[in-house]
Amino acid sequence: MGSCNNTMAVLIMVSLLIVCRVSADLERFEQTTKRDGTLRFLVVGDWGRRGEFNQSQVAFQMGRIGEEMDIDFVVSTGDNFYDNGLKGVEDPNFVDSFTNVYTPKSLQKQWFSVLGNHDYRGDAVAQLSPLLRKIDSRWLCLRSFIVNAEVAELLFVDTSPFVEEYFTNPGDHVYDWRGVYSPKTYTSHLLKDLELALKNSKARWKIVVGHHAIRSVSHHGDTQELVDQLLPILEANDVDLYMNGHDHCLQRISHTKSPIQFLTSGAGSKTWRGDVNTTNEQGLEFFYDGQGFMSVELSPSDVAVVFYDVFGAILHRWTMFKSVLHSIV
Question: Where is the signal peptide (predicted)?
Fold first, then answer.
C-alpha cells in the first residue's frame, strides 16, 4: 500500500511539473501562407473609439487595401478600446468599436491582438476571454503568444507590465493586474520564454509585436524598460522587425546597432499633431503625425512595409531583402 502511495505521489509531482512547463510556454497558433509562399497582413493600433476620430475612415481604407493585397490577417498593436478598456465581456464597446467598424469583407479575417495600457485600465481579462470570440470569431487577444506563419514567426509580447510607472505612480488610473502576479517575476518569465522561442525559431523572418515602443520620437518616446530588458534579446536572436502602437502616429526607425526596424502603427483613430521629440531622431527614417495604418508583405527573399494615411494614400514604402542561399546554408 505504501509503495502504491509513493508511486501515486511521484505521478502527481510529474504531472504538476508537466503542467507548469506547458503553462510557461507561449501559446502557438498556426497561420498558413499563400501558395506562392507569401504572407500579407495589415497592422493598426490605438483604435477603439466607436468609429470616432476617423476610426471608421481608417477602417474603410484598411478594407480597400486589404482587398487589393488579399491579406491573410490583421495585427492590432493594442489600446483596443478607449478610454479604459472593456467593462466586461458584455460591454457594448466591443461591438461598437470593433465588429461594427471593421466591416469590409477583406477585414473578415483573423485579428491577432495584444493588450495596451488603456486596455489594462478596464477589465483586461475580458479581452482575453473566449466568450468574445463567440460574439465575433475574428477576435483573438492574449497576453503573449506566437503566430507561426511558415515564412515568418510573429511573437506577441505583453509590454505593459514592464512599465514601472504603472505600478509606482498610476495617478488616477486603476489597472487590472489580475494574472500579473509579481511584475518582476512575470516579466522575467516572459523574457525567458521569448528568448527560448526566438532561439528555437527556424522562421525566415522573426517579428516581435508589442504595444509600447522600444524607439519612438513621438509623445511617449523610448520605453526605457524595453530598451534595457527586451532589446538585447531581439538583438541577440536576429529579430527583423519590432512593431508597436502606443504613440498615436506612424513611424519607422532603423536600429543603429543591428538590422532591426522599429515600426510604429498607432494611428487607428485619435492622433497627436506636432507631438515630436526632435532631440531623439537618431535612426529616424519616417514619421507621420496623422491617422493611418501599415501593411506588411513577406516572401522568403524580401519584406515590404507600406504606411498609409486616412485617405489610403501611400506615405512611405520600405523594402528589405535577404539572401535565400544564406538561409539554406
Answer: 1-24
